[in-house]
Design goal:
With 101 residues, the chain is α+β, with helices and mostly antiparallel strands. Helices cover 24% and strands 12% of the residues. The strands form 2 sheets. The protein has a two-stranded parallel sheet with strand order 1-2. It has a two-stranded antiparallel sheet with strand order 3-4. The longest helix is centred in the middle third of the chain and has 12 residues, at 46-57.
């Protein structure tokens, strides 16, 4: 290699140090415990929530993963006050009301 040898660690804050001097970064969270489940549903919108409901009826455990902090998907994020007319047993409701219970 030109210019000498490369340090054994690749982290920016450890360049020039030996590998045994590695210190964990306090700004990174520690990994959470593993979750055991039979199904993973990506998205907490109307379809994802319905899928979790159906899997529950079949006795299948499921976990929901979504990028938003609240359920409802695009309905709740983009159109929270727009009326929804096609949810069974509800004549009309807004996405904010539907997704929060």
């Amino acid at each position: 290699m030109r210019g000498g040898s490369r340090p054994s660690t690749m982290s920016g804050r450890n360049i020039g140090r030996e590998a045994s001097a590695f210190e964990p970064d306090p700004n990174h969270a520690t990994p959470a415990a593993a979750i055991t489940t039979e199904a993973v549903i990506i998205g907490a919108g109307p379809c994802g929530l319905f899928q979790v409901f159906e899997l529950g009826l079949l006795g299948i455990s499921a976990q929901v993963v979504d990028s938003l902090r609240h359920p409802g998907g695009q309905c709740a994020e983009l159109y929270p006050d727009k009326p929804i007319y096609d949810i069974p047993a509800l004549p009309v409701c807004g996405a904010r009301n539907w997704s929060t219970g």
